[in-house]
């Protein structure tokens, strides 16, 4: 990746009139033409809409108007974000043919900042998965090795940035769906604090966990996108009433004096190369003047279990609305109940059905306290553990994923081993905290490895300070 193709350098040169949004867009569309058939990052490429958006940016510049901080930046959107008049499928047959009547808040904000939308990216159906193999429209392949997965659920968005189909993209992260594919595809991915980026217009999976965030080729670009997307939105009742995040100043600060937490009881089982990269990341931060401190997170190991009760419980309720009446697909049957059943049986894939059944069971009378209620208690324990850890540490470092990108098909028949991909990412969502994955060297087969930086609620500025240092210290040198 050269400097010319970072989102911030594109926006700067377009705003200065040195390059046009149109010529930049065409170079990305050419990349899509060349490689999309091997990668399958997109459910839909919106080339004509993109050309119109780029032309508008160019007209603004020509007329002396500033198109905004993302002037001419080609951006891909995960296909679970509503785009007015443009199909939004969640990679599910049940939404086939549905065109949202409104834009998600993130879409509105990025467009107002001059972004150019190149398309809607593939995902695991309704964002349930860790490999983008659960899409009803086919697998997304890893641009570093097309026999392997791109991660998930935002695999299409991660692959689109890694393959230079877009300068940046958006994903959603309920249990790791931005950070894990970012790690597997060798790009930066951020899950912000719950409530900093509006969920209005994000199709709900598990509403108390879902957050939108960016994928970019470098740390600065993620800061730029988050500054544009964050900030209070009255259309999302869980949006934090505060101004947009300010992150740029943090990028140029060093890490001297920061306390970096190392979890002493981190769940085992990561690839040895990944553990080695993590150790090097700690060493690099120490060499840059940070202090490494030990922290304990004894309840972290229960995170996965709690998540797989809470997320399906919320999903079973959120997905009740797909009944053949209000959205997308309908399978006709003699009476209404039979129509609901036939529509849902035909419209949902296997993993989505599994989650709906798990969630319905966990919420059912008689089992609610034993499962859902218990899971909420574990969620509280995890938050308490983090609160104690953050008295000693400013940020915490873990691997993002215990393994590098795995071969397509390797885990599809084993849901539990797929779920384990998120062992390090899920606790953050349960606590509502921010976390990001930064590329840090390679592991087995030369595949990308990501290091995860975790921070307490609204600790994004410190998290970005550390991420910027990791990027500067990454094996192979700064970009
Ligand atoms: N892989 C996790 C799951 O399948 C997380 C998904 C996500 O963050 N959307 O639920």
Quickly describe the structure.
By secondary structure, this protein is an alpha/beta fold. The protein is built from 16 helices and 13 strands. The strands form 2 sheets. The chain has an 11-stranded mixed beta sheet with strand order 1-3-2-6-8-7-12-13-11-9-10, sandwiched between helices.
Keywords:
globular, Amidase signature (AS) enzymes, 16 helices, two-stranded antiparallel sheet, 479 residues, single chain, eleven-stranded mixed β-sheet, 14% strand, alpha/beta, binds glutamine
Give the secondary structure arrangement, pairings included.
Layout: H1 7-15, H2 21-39, E1 42-45, H3 47-62, E2 74-78, H4 105-112, E3 116-121, E4 141-142, E5 145-149, H5 155-162, E6 168-173, H6 179-185, E7 188-191, E8 211-216, H7 219-229, H8 248-251, E9 259-263, H9 272-287, E10 291-295, H10 303-318, H11 336-347, H12 350-363, H13 369-392, E11 395-399, H14 415-419, H15 426-431, E12 435-442, E13 448-454, H16 460-473
Parallel strand pairs: 2-3, 2-6, 9-10, 9-11
Antiparallel strand pairs: 1-3, 4-5, 6-8, 7-8, 7-12, 11-13, 12-13
Helix pairs in contact: 2-3, 5-6, 10-12, 10-13
Bound molecules: glutamine.
Glutamine binds next to loops.
């Amino acid at each position: 990746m050269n400097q010319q193709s970072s989102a911030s350098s594109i926006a700067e040169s377009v705003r200065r009139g040195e390059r046009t949004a149109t010529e930049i867009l065409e170079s990305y569309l050419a990349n899509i033409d060349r490689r999309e058939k091997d990668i399958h990052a997109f459910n839909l490429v919106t080339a004509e809409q993109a050309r119109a958006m780029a032309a508008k940016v160019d007209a603004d510049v020509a007329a002396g108007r500033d198109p905004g901080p993302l002037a001419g930046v080609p951006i891909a959107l995960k296909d679970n974000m509503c785009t007015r008049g443009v199909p939004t499928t969640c990679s599910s047959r049940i939404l086939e043919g549905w065109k949202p009547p409104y834009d998600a808040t993130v879409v509105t904000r990025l467009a107002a900042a001059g972004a150019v939308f190149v398309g809607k990216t593939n995902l695991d159906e309704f964002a349930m998965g860790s490999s983008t193999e659960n899409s009803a429209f086919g697998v997304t392949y890893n641009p570093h090795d097309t026999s392997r997965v791109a991660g998930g659920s935002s695999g299409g968005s991660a692959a689109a940035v890694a393959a230079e189909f877009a300068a940046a993209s958006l994903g959603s992260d309920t249990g790791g769906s931005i950070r894990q594919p970012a790690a597997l595809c060798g790009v930066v991915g951020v899950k912000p604090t719950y409530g900093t980026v509006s969920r209005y217009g994000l199709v709900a999976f598990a509403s108390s966990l879902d957050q939108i965030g960016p994928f970019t080729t470098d740390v600065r670009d993620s800061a730029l996108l988050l500054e544009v997307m964050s900030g209070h939105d009255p259309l999302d009742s869980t949006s934090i009433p505060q101004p947009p995040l300010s992150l740029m100043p943090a990028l140029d600060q060093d890490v001297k004096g920061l306390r970096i937490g190392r979890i002493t009881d981190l769940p085992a089982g990561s690839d040895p190369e990944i553990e080695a990269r993590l150790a090097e990341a700690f060493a690099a931060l120490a060499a840059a003047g940070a202090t490494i401190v030990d922290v304990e997170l004894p309840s972290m190991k229960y995170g996965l279990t709690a998540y797989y009760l809470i997320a399906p419980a919320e999903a079973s309720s959120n997905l009740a609305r797909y009944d053949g009446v209000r959205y997308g697909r309908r399978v006709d049957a003699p009476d209404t109940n039979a129509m609901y059943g036939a529509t849902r049986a035909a419209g949902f894939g296997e993993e989505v059905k599994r989650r709906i059944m798990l969630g319905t069971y966990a919420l059912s009378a008689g089992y609610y306290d034993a499962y859902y209620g218990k899971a909420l208690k574990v969620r509280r324990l995890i938050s308490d553990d983090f609160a104690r850890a953050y008295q000693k540490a400013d940020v915490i470092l873990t691997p993002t994923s215990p393994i590098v990108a795995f071969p397509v098909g390797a885990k599809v028949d084993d849901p539990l081993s797929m779920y384990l991909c998120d062992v390090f990412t899920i606790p953050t969502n349960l606590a509502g905290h921010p976390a990001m994955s930064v590329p840090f060297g390679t592991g087995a087969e030369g595949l990308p490895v990501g290091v995860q930086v975790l921070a307490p609620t609204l600790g994004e500025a410190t998290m970005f300070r550390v991420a910027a240092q990791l990027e500067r210290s990454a094996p192979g040198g700064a970009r």
